[in-house]
Design brief:
The protein is mainly beta and 152 residues long. The protein has 2 helices and 6 strands, in the order E-E-E-E-H-E-E-H.
Amino acid sequence: MLNHIVLMGRLTRDPELRRTGSGIAVASFTLAVDRDFAAQGAEKETDFVDIVAWRNTAEFVSRYFAKGRMAVVSGRLQIRNWTDKEGNKRRSAEVVADNVYFGDSKRDGAAAGGFDQTPSYPQAPAYQAPAAPAPSASGFSMLEDDDSELPF
């Protein structure tokens, strides 16, 4: 059997990091995922998917992700059965995340999540293409006929 899901969306809130009684990290958050289509004359709908991450993935998510940040989650769908306070049987679906990836750059996430826009890497000088020979009246330009650098 195959149970694998990949979702891309924005966090609706900051991840909540907790620890089990034995000290294992668990983070939970909700991902807002836009549907690929919309009914004619209507806006696209959004699904809100509960995500749970464990151990190192949980610590990674709680450290580097915040509300509004785009995330790609790869994991498995899990259905939980539980009983509410009135004794009614309930079901809830959540994704257990195996991997969580950045869905945007830190600069892109700044608009949605309030991240620092200062790049942490040196800026490379802009590339400037060499000047091309001027085209002739017919719109074509002559190419140099130098085969000395060909490997054959």
